[in-house]
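When time allows, look over one protein, given below as sequence and tokens. The question is which stretches look regular and which look disordered:
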Amino acid sequence: MPVPDRTHDLLAFLRTAETGSFTGAARRLGTTPSAISKSVARLERQFGVRLFHRSTRNLALTAEAVAYAERVAPLLRAIEDAGDILQPGRTAQGLLRVTMPADLGAALMEPLAREVLGRNPGLKIDVSLTDRHVDLIREGYDVALRAGLLADTELTSRRLGALPMVLVASPAYLAARGVPRTVAALRTHTHVRYTVAGRAFPITFADGSSFLPESVLDTDSGAGLRGAALAGVGIAQVMRVAVQDGLETGKLQVVLPEAPLPAVPVQALHAFARHLPLRVRLFIDFAAAQIAKLAANGTPQPGQV
């Protein structure tokens, strides 16, 4: 099979695959939709296959295009990033695509903009704030931050630290239902639960014991848990960083502080193995420093809850 001799044609194809349109790809590459369309057409002629199903409203990858994108994307990314090795002292350039949980993103966004973008004027960042575990390679992300234990993965991971977890409820809920003083009493209360892929997470304590509470509301969003707790729906198990403001203002209270929860590990995942592009390496180092700050700020001192 012939090998395309124009890298920009491959870039046009991959950015179109990622964004779902010639317009989105053109915006990413700083060119026009017409130029992107011509690049894709050249590849189709060269390979003799159709890469996209076209309609008046959108584009969809053909089966051949999906397979080709999965093979080509890591190779092209390596070519784009090779300059980092030759110019180790320069600032990061290009587009950094990051995905992270919404609650963690809310805490990191302001320092990310100030420190990472401020120090790297040639860098652009595309951040997806979602608790969904995205497919980094298929969806074209450089790095993901994940909270919790990792399932088996072929991706490269780096542990960045751990963030405290707490059980919280609103004062109104506790006034109406009473304050649980034991784990046995906690079991009888109304709870809101965090879910991933339809699986609810149990309440797990630092001593290793756990139980899966009955729930009146399940959600796959940390923001949803916080909102339900603030509304007085029930008791929620959340990262302390997500509810620190509510604890400081008295809108939420820590429940059963005598039975602490283990901190949740936070990892960075990527598919670059040992040859990290500068933009990814800078972001991961930044994230590790920020996680350490959040962990220190979110850990109660003696006498506090």
Observations:
- Residues 63-86 form the longest helix (24 residues).
- The radius of gyration is 23 Å.
